[in-house]
Design brief:
Blueprint (H helix, E strand, L loop, with lengths): L21 H20 L3 E2 L5 E3 L19 E3 L5 E4 L4 H10 L8 E10 L11 E10 L4 H17 L7 E7 H10 L8 H12 L1 H13 L2 E3 L5 E3 L5 H11 L6 H8 L7 H19 L7 E3 L13 E12 L5 E12 L5 H4 L5 E7 H10 L12 E3 L7 H13 L4 E3 L6 H10 L4 E4 L2 H6 L1 E6 H8 L5 H7 L3 E5 L3 H9 L1
Parallel strand pairs: 1-5, 7-10, 14-15, 14-16
Antiparallel strand pairs: 2-4, 3-4, 5-6, 6-13, 7-11, 8-9, 11-12, 12-13, 16-17, 17-18
Helix pairs in contact: 1-3, 3-9, 4-9, 5-6, 6-7, 8-9
Length: 491
């Protein structure tokens, strides 16, 4: 009805998703460029897969009667086939390799970056859309491929400006974990649930320490809030074997291996896992990567049903302060491992593979905390102010000359006056404003305001009179020298 006020649509962001401004995008782009440079130096080539895959290609996420299980965003196409937004970048790679298997070189070394989607409850630092950057080697069963990934991960951290000593690549092996489970009598499908509880307890070692893990291996643990977590129900002997294993990491990879080797001596799989770790340690050490960079750590647990051999995490070890001034650590920013069964789902034959994934947003936050990147904003374009709408073509010509010289430039296209135009240029983070009124035009000159320098100088100036007399950071130059002088000022 004409008399009723039309209700406005409320602008609101979907839960678990974020908008990104120009500064964040520029910082991400720069960081991704560095990662790409390292990966390509190792001989990895880019590949790009779609955001959408058939749901069954994503593995365990299969549709029920109404919709796929929790974890993926899914829909049906016009053929009533289930499609899903990709959950990670590895499952699509496995599909791509299987589909193009005969045409690809083996081993196939590739990297890819892109957004992935999780249909999970969002929370602080937990988003439904986020970027990953992966690198994988498919078709090599050699643990040399795993060692290479670890070395590449270390090189990537340092190339991004994270100093040695502020990160470590921690390595473990799923076969060793399986051997430990076998040693304490938890092999077999009937013990799958208890094994999962044990692995989750091990995963909390960094946060809870030995006694906290001991409680979770036994009857259970009550935390500070009074909440009780049921334990794995192991007896003292079983729990002690697990604790001896978790505590088996030391400053020396050789010492760690010597201490965990007897724990899996009765398990062929466990012994094989230890020897694979020994081989990785040998390979990285001979390539100049000491334990300050790549370290065997028996507390690392990843992909409880996903990985089949070596697993690794990149942990940042430096501390920063949170909003309350309390020290916090970023922890893991990347991880991966060997997943020999994923491509085999499509091929029906074993296809060995290994790779890792960087959490781009989390790593960007860490680099920002270290002061390696600035996400507050990037320099904007030179802004050509419009003093006379009838001379708009002249102003466009100035901007065009600047652009042709490789300088970002724009003409102010609003309808406001001079004061508002300079305010606009400031909000655009413009380094320079170009001004040519009728007086400057008659003289064949332009006025250039160095906005960044002017803002700095203004801090020491009191009052409008002093400001006008100082003509802060302002230059009058011949129109013909516009590009030359702007280049000098930007330099």
């Amino acid at each position: 009805m004409s008399g009723e006020k039309k209700q406005k649509l409320k602008a609101r962001q979907a839960r678990g998703f974020v908008d990104r401004n120009a500064g964040e995008i520029a910082a991400t782009r720069a960081m991704v460029s560095v990662i790409q440079e390292v990966y390509e130096r190792y001989g990895f080539d880019p590949v790009e897969t779609p955001f959408v895959e058939y749901t069954d290609a994503l593995g365990k996420f299969l549709p029920d009667q109404d919709r796929p299980n929790e974890g993926v965003f899914s829909f049906q196409d016009d053929d009533e086939q289930w499609l899903s937004l990709r959950y990670d970048l590895t499952a699509p790679l496995a599909r791509y390799v299987a589909e193009n298997f005969d045409a690809l070189p083996k081993p196939y070394r590739s990297y890819r970056a892109g957004y992935v989607f999780r249909n999970e409850k969002p929370g602080p630092g937990r988003f439904r859309q986020f970027m990953q950057f992966d690198a994988d080697t498919v078709g090599s069963a050699s643990v040399a491929a795993d060692a290479e990934i670890c070395m590449m991960a270390a090189d990537t951290m340092e190339k991004l400006g994270i100093p040695r000593g502020s990160y470590v690549v921690r390595v473990n092996n799923r076969k060793v974990l399986d051997g430990i489970m076998e040693a304490i009598g938890l092999a077999g499908d009937e013990n799958a649930g208890r094994r999962l509880t044990v692995l989750r307890a091990i995963d909390k070692f960094d946060r809870l320490g030995l006694e906290g893990v001991r409680a979770l291996l036994g009857a259970g643990r009550k935390d500070e809030s009074g909440d009780f977590t049921k334990g794995a129900g192991l007896d003292d002997s079983q729990a002690q074997t697990i604790l001896d294993y978790v505590a088996g990491q030391s400053g020396s990879n050789a010492d760690t291996l010597a201490r965990i080797r007897p724990l899996v001596s009765g398990s062929p799989a466990g012994s094989e896992g230890v020897e694979e770790l020994a081989r990785i340690a040998e390979l990285v050490e001979k390539s100049g990567y000491g334990t300050d960079r790549i370290l065997i750590d028996t507390s690392i647990v990843r992909g409880l049903e996903y990985y089949t051999g070596p697993v690794y995490e990149v942990e940042l070890t430096f501390e920063v302060k949170d909003e309350q001034g309390r020290p916090v650590r970023f922890g893991s920013v990347a991880g991966g491992g060997r997943y020999d069964g994923l491509v085999a789902r499509f091929r029906g034959e074993p296809v060995p593979a290994t790779g890792f994934s960087i959490g781009v947003s989390r790593l960007l936050s860490a680099l920002t905390a270290l002061g390696r990147v600035d996400t507050a904003g990037v320099a904007g374009p030179v802004v050509v102010c419009v003093m006379d709408q009838a001379r708009l073509a002249d102003y466009q010509a100035m901007a065009s000359e600047l652009r042709q010289a490789g300088i970002r430039a724009e003409v102010y296209l609003g309808g406001s006056g001079m004061k508002a135009q300079l305010k606009y240029a400031d909000r655009r983070k413009a380094p320079i404003a170009v001004i040519q009124g009728s007086d400057e035009a008659e003289k064949g000159e332009v006025q250039l305001k160095d906005l960044a320098l002017g803002a700095e100088m203004a801090k020491a100036i009191e009052g409008n009179t002093e400001w006008r007399e100082a003509r802060v950071a302002q230059r009058q130059v011949p129109r013909a020298e516009l590009v030359k002088v702007v280049k000098e000022m930007l330099g």
